[in-house]
Amino acid sequence: MSNPYGHFEDPNREYVITRPDTPLPWLNFLGQDEYFALNTNTGGGYSFYKDARLRRLTRYRYNEMPYDNNGRYLFIKDGDTVWNPGWKPVKTELDSYECRHGLGYSRITSSKNGLEASVLIFVPPEENLEIWQTTLTNNSDAPKTFKLFSFVEFCLYDAQNDSTNFQRTYSIGEVEIEKNAIFHKTEYRERRDHYTMFASTRDIDGYDTSRDDFVGVHNGIHEPKAVLAGQPNNTQAFGWNPIGSHYHEITLQPGESTKHSYILAYVTVSGEKYIAPHVINKEPANAILDKYSDESAVDEAFAKLNGLWDDQLSTFQVETPCPIMNRMGNAWNQAQCMATFNLSRSASLFESGIGRGMGYRDSNQDLLGFVHMVPDKARQRILDISATQMSSGLCFHQYQPLTKKGNDEIGGGFMDDHLWLILSTTAYIRETGDVGILDEKVGYADVEEKTATLLDHLELSIRYTLENRGPHNLPLIGHADWNDCLNLNCFSTEPNESFQTASHNTAEEVAESLMIAGLFLKACLDLQGLYKFIGADAKAEETAAAHAEMLEAVETQGWDGDWYLRAFDTYKEPIGSHKNEEGKIYIESQGWLVMGGAGADNGRAEKTLDAVHEHLYTEDGCVLQQPPYQTYHLHLGEVSSYPPGYKENAGIFCHNNPWIHLALMQLGNGDRAYEYYLSVCPAAKEDKIETYRGEPYMYSQMIAGKDAATPGEAKNAGLTGTAAWTFLTISQGFAGIKPDYEGLQIDPCVPTAWPELKVTRKFRGKTFNITVQNPEGKSKGIKSLTVNGQAVEGDTIPLSSAAEENEVVAVIG
Ligand code: BGC
Ligand code: NOJ
């Protein structure tokens, strides 16, 4: 497949971008502990500690001209030519350019007039800093003297305030400069527990910290005054807009190379009292500088990062006949799962870091995609999320990562949130066997005494849905379910009211959701398994009865003839029915109900997935519903506020596609699941990249649907639940490796044309080298299973009889 902008390099898990003017800025997520950096292929992006809203370290300008404005910039002035290794912001035409996005790092290498600059940007594991290791090489045959300026623009930590409250922010900025380090210490006056250091490991020949002097009041960052003049001003910023810029004058002989690093660090100081005069405690900063005073320490940190990724990825590696699935499943898909784990939906090129914290629903789902890589972090995440559930059963829809306090800033009353906790917790326990987590006392967000255990939360979640059902005995939808835009209780008599301002018809908030019904069914199945595992048989039976009761309501009230309904609105009318003129069929209920066990004995599961194929499937993926709403309907809410084909109004919402893939595989349809898998896969879009525009190595939230003006165009790349669910499609669907309470289930579903696939899976400290053979060209059903040469009954390898290293052969037939 050809893509004029770049290509995958699988052995080193890199995407190599060979032209800077990509159809959109192509992003990489760096950091996976507490320090995070967004970095594009031209060096754009920003950094923050834990929380993109409250501890933003550098500034970024969203929705600017050009896109992707501000970042980690190096300016080189070589004679009269000024250029940046990342091409932007000066955009001088380069003699060569390459950006390698790898896992947790980016390396940008460019050359101009015989000088090559290579900048490796990464966040070392477990450190609150980023490093830009810079290598400069004179490839010309004459000595070269040039001027090098670094640049970051500091954000005054609270990004919301920083971008709105200038009457204050223009007076609070403070910096200190000492040797090769620039310290951004705004907020230190109040909190005295943090500051930012921007330092060079090479002795500097000058600096600037005042933006007005370095860039100029009337200049853009593509024409910084100091760079054009070829000399810094050695300024100290007082208020206005503090920046960090180091200046170096460098001479290189022909063939000579030199290396140094810039370190941008978030430094915390503990237990300090107010000291006047107001000078920061530089001890911790100096320790960082000491550590990295030698470039070999930087190399070591980089090796550690690569080792970490080797290790994380080694839990699951797959070799199928599909190179695209292998490259995504073995590297990129898992890396994206890690990004969603770290950032939920808070900070990307499409999420400003201000509006949204960690989502309750989102983070629970994201966990499904990373629990195998970082089980300990997953454990903590479950406890953090569950603590934002309230004693009623409803949950705060999101929380701020810095404070871990729940908030409903993007609205509350989502009646699906609580159920996702059951999916994440059971996935965690199946992966680790750690039932001890169930007894952790997390408490409820609105109750002072923290006595409720995690298990109490799970029980409450089931109860909440059971007790909050509507006229058809189906779960109430509240503000919305997974589909944030299906606001079926909106009601107003005012003309021109929008879904955002419409009052809810509180007396009659009876809209119901078949998607929540499906999610509830699945949650019951998962919880039932857990109860059995912990010997709570009565509870397991109760949960089975709840499943049966909901299933009954679904089958009697929710079937439309050829597919399942999506919902009932506040007027008790069906949504997602052939009776509707628009929005006749929706995707979410079909996937969830099949996964929850609906339609299993009456042929409806097959029938409903056939309806998905007929009405929703396109070569770019399944659209969310059909036909799209052509006009706005207040009583449907945000969904109809989008133009046809975009977002929830019949866009290809990638997140819900894998639900269909998994449902198809549950029914054994490997061929169709594979066709569908490729349809949404970014790595399969390289030959239509001009239309697609997004990164080929990570999922976008949405691809414009067939009814859109720009079908096939991707938007909102990076932070989407698609990552976790698609990873499940690969690992638990096609490869069929399903961690279970007592062992590892092998239940693959493959395209009939695949003769074989291999998987290495680490599970509870043991390694399983699994070969799945498909001699009869089928899709599903294990005919025989051998572990270390011994035949095993059924399709589950009991953990008790597994060795440290296991050779497993599973034959489909
Ligand atoms: C978007 C949804 C998103 C929601 C968050 C809506 O505008 O369409 O995809 O989840 O905002 O509140
Ligand atoms: C994106 C949100 O992050 C997610 O929670 C939601 O389910 C989808 N949009 C669908 O509306």
Automatic annotation (TrEMBL):
GO terms for molecular function: carbohydrate binding; glycosyltransferase activity. It comes from the Bacteria. Residues 309-734 form the Glycosyl hydrolase 94 catalytic domain. This is Glycosyl transferase. Gene3D superfamilies: 1.50.10.10, Glycoside hydrolase, family 65, N-terminal domain, Maltose phosphorylase, domain 3, mpn423 like domain. InterPro entries: 6-hairpin_glycosidase_sf, 6hp_glycosidase-like_sf, Gal_mutarotase_sf_dom, GH65_N, GH94_catalytic, GH94_Enzymes, GH94N_CBP, Glyco_hydrolase_94_b-supersand. Keywords: Glycosyltransferase, Transferase. Residues 13-294 form the Glycosyl hydrolase 94 supersandwich domain. SUPFAM superfamilies: Galactose mutarotase-like (SSF74650), Six-hairpin glycosidases (SSF48208). Pfam families: GH94_b-supersand (PF06165), Glyco_hydro_94 (PF17167). GO terms for biological process: carbohydrate metabolic process. It comes from Pelagicoccus mobilis.
